[in-house]
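A favour, since you know our structure tokens better than I do. Would you make up a two-line entry for one protein for me to read? Write everything out right here, beneath this request.
=====
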Amino acid sequence: YTLSATSGENGSISPTGNKTIFGRETLTYIFTPEPGYEVSKVIVDSNNVGRLLTYTFDTIISDHSIYVDFIKKPIITAQSGDHGDIYPKGSVEIHNGDFQMFLIKPDTGFKVESILVDDKVVSVPVDQINAQNLWKSYVFSNIEQDHNISVTFNRCHIQTATNGNGRIEPDGELVFDVHDHVSFSFTPNSGFVVDDVIVDNESIGPQYYYNFWKLTDDHSLEVNFRAIEVHTLTATASTGGSITPSGIIKVLDGEYGEFMIEPDENHELTDVLANGKSILEITGDDGVSMLPVGKDGYFISLDISSDQNIKAVFSEIPEYEIMAIAGDGGKIEPSGFIKIRHGQYQLFTFSPNPGYAVKDVQVDNLSKGSLNSYSFSVMDNHRLIVSFSPINTRMIKGTVVDKEAPLHGLENFLVEVWKGDSLLQTTTTNINGEYEIENLPATDQLVLAAWPPLGTADYYGRFYNDKKDRRDADPLSTLTGNLEDIRFMMQRTFEEGIRGQVREGEVGIAHIMVDVFEDSATFVKNVMT
């Protein structure tokens, strides 16, 4: 069979030309690019098999052709100025289509000033991993031609300026190391104040100092000053209180007008007007603050930037009456007709006599049920009436016995009385299995339950009447009187057991509590691993 081997320029293939091979033999071709070149593609029988350095025909049983082409390797020229470096540096030879990353590292105290790629400025963020050192990196991707990259380094520059009428300290064109902390103070001339501070062409308003923390870049700082104006404040108060100071007050622009406002007895402050606009609606904003002082007074502070008419407005506090009445069987405190000012808080407590309980509390003819106390935040007149009723107590008693031996009373069994989701009382049986629960309310829908002593599992717990679930229990009623002979017939547990293991993966775990419940969620027994 005939194998034909050819190559393009800037490299060779070995062996080359036509070569005759006997069937089922093997032949390997080697591709050698000239310096600065590399294999671009290898064509075998019209198929591109990629960029290879050798190719082998195994077990030849037909004619073949092979062609190799070469391409120039791109070169990236990397250089840096003083006070830093770029890695790698110099002429870097790259495989066609590959990528190349360059790490840019400024010296301590310096930062990257500029990065030029193919003679054009590019913006590159600081690497997050090396943010402390302000290192940067640039990546060329899918490289198919020559490139150049150059970087320069510098320290941090801060340029300061003013419009006159004051000074910045320090000032001028200042140079600092990277990560330095720099503080500036602004001092107006006599009769002037700071009007605005501009940092990197962004206004931040009037300030008297500014700090650059951990410098990483160049900055500009400009301070503008303006003449101080004098404003007139006229302070007055309506009937029912006072404002101090009052009358005409002179205040410099940007300073604060401060007033103490106090209502007279049985009066309250309802508004404070500045040029007819309520400052209560803007308290906390626009340089206005209002703080309570003493019982009813207020301290008001306003940042003054114009003439102002300040007026404190007062009104009389309305007085209301609460009529508090208690029926037989107890008392209410306080009682009678109570005078209370608008918005004040008043608590009433109810104390039943022995043998009595609060039956109902009525507020303005509306029942509030049985309560121990009631409070008002007074906004109107009210009527409060509390009634009492004698306490009717009930008793339930019975026995807990073995279901298979009813004459055998069970000792130390826990008996519970429930009303809805509330546990009312509990007791335990005596040696004869008898129990007695006193001081129960006269009510219906009571549910009883009996449970074996803690730590034993000879009997199942049951709800009355032999029910496994509280929802299925037969309810009892004490509305008409006491209940007697409420008997629980307790079922013994079976002797079967359950054996197993608690583990995590293949490792057994000690001291884990394993509980056993019936399908109705009734507890049966537990054991520790």
